[in-house]
Structure formats: C-alpha cells, structure tokens
Amino acid sequence: MTETQFTPRVFSGIQPSGNLHLGNYLGALKRFVDMQKPDIETIYCMVDLHAITVWQDPKELAHSTRELCAGFIAAGLDPEKSILFNQSQVPEHAQLAWIFNCVARMGWMQRMTQWKDKAGKNQQNASLGLFAYPSLMAADILTYHATHVPVGDDQKQHLELTRDIAIKFNHDYGVDFFPITEPVIEGAATRVMSLRDGSKKMSKSDPSDMSRINMTDDADTIAKKIRKAKTDPEALPSELDGLDERPEARNLVNIYAALSDQTAEQVLVEMGGKQFGEFKPMLAELAVSKLAPISSEMAHLMGEQAEIDRILAKGAEKARAVAAPILQQTYEIVGMVGAKQG
Length: 342
Ligand code: TYM
Known about the structure:
Number of strands: 5
Number of helices: 13
Order of helices and strands: EHEHHEHHHHEHEHHHHH
Radius of gyration: 21 Å
Bound molecules: ligand 1
CATH architecture of the largest domain: 3-Layer(aba) Sandwich
Oligomer: single chain
Mean pLDDT: 96
CATH class of the largest domain: Alpha Beta
CATH superfamily of the largest domain: HUPs
C-alpha cells in the first residue's frame, strides 16, 4: 500500500467486447475477487465506453455487458461488497476524461503500444476515441481517487500514463488532489499466453478459438483445448530457470499455478519430471473444477436479465455518489463557474 493521504480504494475495469477469457480471469477478475475484503472499498466497472472505441454491434454490446456482469458475480464478486456497474451510466467518467484530454499530451498518447497495435498502419482511419482511450482510463480510476488498480501486465503502460496525468494535473493547478495510483500486477498469471503460440498473448481478438479458454466454455471444451495446447517434447523441469526458452511450457505452468493459488516454483516442485502426457490431464482437471462452475453460474445468471440490470443500476448509483463530488472539486480547481462541492 502507498503512503498517501488517500484512503485505500481499489478500482478496475474490463471491456464488454466479446468473450471473457482465461487471461481476463487469471490476470484480472480472480484478483478482483481476492481484493474484495471488508477493510477496503472495491469498485469494478464494465467499461462500455471503452469498448466502442472500436465498432460494436449495439445488441452484442448490451449482451456482452450483461454477460460480463454475470461473469463478475459468478467468479465471486458480491454486489453487496463491491460496487459493480457499467461505465456509461456514471457520466463523471466521460466528463473527467475531457479535462484529462486537455492535460495529456499528444506525444504521450502516440507512445502507447496498445494504440500502435490496435490502430496499426491505418491510424488515419482509427477513431479519435481509440487514440484518447488512456485518458478515459485515467478518468475511470481518478474519479474515485482510487489508489490501487489490479490489472494484467498489458495495462502497465496505461497505468503509468494515469500517474503522469495525475502528476501533471496536480502540478499545473498547484494542488495535491489526485492520488498517484499503484498498479497491482501480481500473481502467477499476469500475462496468460495463447494456447497455440506461446509468444502471443491470449486475447479475444485471436481468430482461433483454440488459442483461448472462454469463461463460457463447457467442461469438455476446456479439457479439449488444454489437451490440444501447443507444448514441447521435454518433461517439466523442477526449477523455474528450466522454463527459459520454453514459452508454451511456462504458460501452462503459470496457468496451473494461478488456478491452484500457488507460485510457479511450487508447481514445479510437485510436477518436475512429468511429461505433458501426464501434466495436461491434471491441468485440464484443475481448470474444469475451477472454471466450469463459473461458466454454469454465468449461464444461470444470464437467465435473470432483470436482476442483472437491477444490480448494474444500483451499482451505478453507488458509484456516482463517490464520483460526483470528486468531479465537482475538479471543476472547482479548474475554475468552472457554478461547480459545487458535493
Ligand atoms: P481488457 O478488457 O482488455 O482486459 C481486462 C483485464 O484483463 C487483463 N488481461 C490479461 N491478463 C493476463 N493475461 C492476458 N492474456 C490478459 N488479457 C487481458 C487486462 O490486463 C485487464 O486487467 N483498458 C482496460 C480496461 C480498463 C481499465 C480501466 C482497467 C478501462 N479502464 C481502469 C483498469 C482501470 C482493458 O482494455 O482491459
């Protein structure tokens, strides 16, 4: 925990675009659940405004938002203990993002690897929203004065930019208003790789469904994907450095470790010497035992759409109660006439 005058508060978000997969679960969602404790406020968001930075079919976006909410709850987030909501329903995010668009510099945004990867060679045709994406992300976090943000490794650069925005805002306006957020990138699976190619991140945009485990996959599909995961012919080593230059093996060990709440070192003490023919069925059994109950609970919750909508609406109300006064104070600092401290 950092030493600031700010009360510790956890915020994080996931995009409701396409399927929630094992990378999202182990790198983010499972850790959101671990951080849900009585002594700390936890706020988790389905970032629908971020999702539309690339085209989303409206019906699918609505479905994915509800499904993500079902995933949050099925994985163990409790709407009575954490604030769960979708971003568009708390307008303070977009309002603060505008202020941050005026604080962040073009050069900062241009350096973002996610922008370069997603816009590719066709930058002129990418949406302005995709370019400004990290400033909305900074607003998501800072409109709650969040101090800790659990994410996977791929969000590290965006969180550094969030710190840069907070520092520049505080400096430009001569205040100590926004906290300098701590990224929390921890656990054995901060970067889950594709099951087909150990050099590529597991992602929802990979055209091969065999590259990822979706949180909606049933037990047979999960087991099949693990059985078919790319590996090498060697046995597992007993120590971590034996995984150097073996990205696929390392990935499966990391997944095993994260699913069983161990470190990769601990897994290797137990599994060292085993061939994949033996290890894969053990991993499949573990994955099915942890993930299948989540997917069946998600399916059950998706049958109760009104309940999901009610949870999201209630969450948005609670989130606004935190965000609105912080936005008003920001407006006041910036010099917007009429801003009232909430
Ligand atoms: P998104 O929706 O791409 O991913 C959600 C979370 O899942 C993590 N993740 C992974 N972790 C390990 N291995 C993988 N293969 C993997 N793929 C994804 C991501 O690191 C992330 O934690 N910009 C964010 C969403 C966001 C946000 C925020 C996050 C918007 N505002 C504020 C934190 C705070 C994103 O696109 O994540």
